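Tip: read the tokens left to right.
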């Protein structure tokens, strides 16, 4: 033992003899971590053989303090976590001795599988990896789904094998229900199918990882993968269609709605998005001057840039309207490395970029909602620009292939989602084409 550690209480925090086995909580001081911490481990000794299972890393002085009465809140929580893990291993060993199946190898296999067989732990691992890769948006998506599932579980754990078609339907029903406080006030709103679909797709990604790791078998896979499986497996619902596309006439009224100069800037950014093939603000705010090639602007979608082998480049003609907006609100320094719109800057972390973009989207949505409500069109958001571009393109008889390419979709079925809903004018026009009962 290192001399500087001798002043601390490094005896096992807890020990428990079971048959010929000895279970202990120890601080492994053989190798100090780069941050100065040491790992707390569960040590299982059986017939002179030992296996170690990591718990958490902790400063040596904190480990020493755990032997006495703990008052620091963080240490109280850590001690509860450490002892809970100890109790779980103890119960597992006792059960194996009771069944006559105990061996260190089998115990190691069960404990290793247990670490892999937790849906919540799998979510946490995926979130950590996404954060390390700077994929903040995807991290937020998985964290939101994880938290929703934890609420449904009431903070219990969930094994991969527990996620059956029946469990998924119960979770869906839970999300569709409203929850009320004892006084009758609304505690939790019912979720829309769009939200349910988002959560289920995140969970499916986690289940796919577990299946690839062999945690569940193909027969245990709970999600529907083909028409044949619809009766037996769970099918993720499609998000319900919302009318969020403006007609050409409505668009002109939005363009002409009177605003003060400060509000005009945010509407102009929305208009830029519309003319730029309905480009997402996550992409627009990352446009640099070197994205401009001749009279085109070219980019890869941020949403799909890191997925798939084939990268789809999107091109949009810089229209007169777009150029006017760039001239009025763009960065006056046109050097190629500068962002066209001066919101982001070099050297920002992915989290800082996301915060700036989300704040701007919030501001644009606030201004556009004001216009939408005044014109009685609804709460217009940045996403309406994308749907409006697709819808109006269809009415102008632009081919589905061209619309799909302009939106950066990899297949036409994705584009079709934007075009499925008919406008009120189309519904009225179609109804007038039907035979009239009183016509002679």
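Filled-in amino acids:
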């Amino acid at each position: 033992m290192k001399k500087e550690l001798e002043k601390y209480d490094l005896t096992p925090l807890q020990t428990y003899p079971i048959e010929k086995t000895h279970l202990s909580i120890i601080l492994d001081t053989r190798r100090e971590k780069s941050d100065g911490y040491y790992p707390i481990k569960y040590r299982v000794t059986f017939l002179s053989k030992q296996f170690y299972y990591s718990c958490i890393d902790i400063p040596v002085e904190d480990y020493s303090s755990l032997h006495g009465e703990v008052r620091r809140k963080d240490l109280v929580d850590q001690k509860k976590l450490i002892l809970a893990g100890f109790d779980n291993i103890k119960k597992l060993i006792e059960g194996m001795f009771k069944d006559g199946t105990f061996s260190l190898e089998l115990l190691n296999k069960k404990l290793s599988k247990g670490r892999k067989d937790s849906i919540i732990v799998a979510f946490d691992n995926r979130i950590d990896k996404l954060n390390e890769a700077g994929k903040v948006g995807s991290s937020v998506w998985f964290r939101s789904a994880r938290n929703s599932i934890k609420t449904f579980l009431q903070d219990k754990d969930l094994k991969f094998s527990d996620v059956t078609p029946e469990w998924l339907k119960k979770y869906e029903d839970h999300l569709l229900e409203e929850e009320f406080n004892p006084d009758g006030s609304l505690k939790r709103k019912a979720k829309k199918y769009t939200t349910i679909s988002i959560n289920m797709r995140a969970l499916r990604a986690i289940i796919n990882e577990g299946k690839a790791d062999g945690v569940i078998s193909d027969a245990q896979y709970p999600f529907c993968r083909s028409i044949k499986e619809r009766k037996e497996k769970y099918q993720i619902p499609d998000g319900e269609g919302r009318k969020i596309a403006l007609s050409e006439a409505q668009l002109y009224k939005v363009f002409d709605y009177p605003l003060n100069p400060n509000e005009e800037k945010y509407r102009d950014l929305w208009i830029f998005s519309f003319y730029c093939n309905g480009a997402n603000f996550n992409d627009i705010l990352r446009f640099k001057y070197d994205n401009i090639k001749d009279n085109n602007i070219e980019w890869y979608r941020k949403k799909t840039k890191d997925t798939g082998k084939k990268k789809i480049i999107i091109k949009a003609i810089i229209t007169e309207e777009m150029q006017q907006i760039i001239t009025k609100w763009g960065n006056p320094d046109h050097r190629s490395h500068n962002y066209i719109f001066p919101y982001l800057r070099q050297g920002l972390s992915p989290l800082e970029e996301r915060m700036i973009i989300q704040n701007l989207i919030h501001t644009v949505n606030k201004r556009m909602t004001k216009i939408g409500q005044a014109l009685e069109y609804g709460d217009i958001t940045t996403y309406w620009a994308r749907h409006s571009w697709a819808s109006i393109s269809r009415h102008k008889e632009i081919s589905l292939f061209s619309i799909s390419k302009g939106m950066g979709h990899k297949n036409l079925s994705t584009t079709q989602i934007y075009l499925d809903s008919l406008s009120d004018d189309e519904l009225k026009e179609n109804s007038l084409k039907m035979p009239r009962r009183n016509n002679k």
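The mean pLDDT is 85. The longest helix spans residues 73-99.
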